Amino acid sequence: MRKAPTDAEAALWSMLRGRQLEGMRFRRQHPIAGYIVDFVCLDSKLIVEADGEQHAENQHDRFRDAQLAGLGYTVLRYWNHEILQNSDGVALDILYHAGKL
Question: Exposed site from 1, 2, 61, 81, fewest CB < 10 Å?
Fold first, then answer.
């Protein structure tokens, strides 16, 4: 993803990087429990994933999310088109789940 992010991943990273979102520090492509997550705020234990069509009804994703939730993380998944067409709504949802609203 770092070398060739999708448009949605690039837009999401542009929103999250540099503590732009209420001072939250996000990392991208960060390893947690043997998984590589798209974006994570370690302080809030909040994981943000950008999903394309390959993630629709994906059993592996559900298992992975359950494993990460067992470690205390909240996993938020947004469809690529949602990130690109409703970035303000995505940002507000992230802030809500981080307890910043």
Answer: 2
pLDDT in tens, 10-41: 999 999 999 999 999 999 999 999 999 999 99
Which residue stretches of the chain are H helix? 7-16, 59-70, 80-85, 87-97
C-alpha atoms less than 13 angstroms from C-alpha of 64 in its C-beta half-sphere: 18
pTM, entire model:
0.89
Q: Which amino acid is at 61?
A: D
CA distance 32 to 40: 9
Angle at 28 between CA 25 and CA 30, to 5 degrees: 105
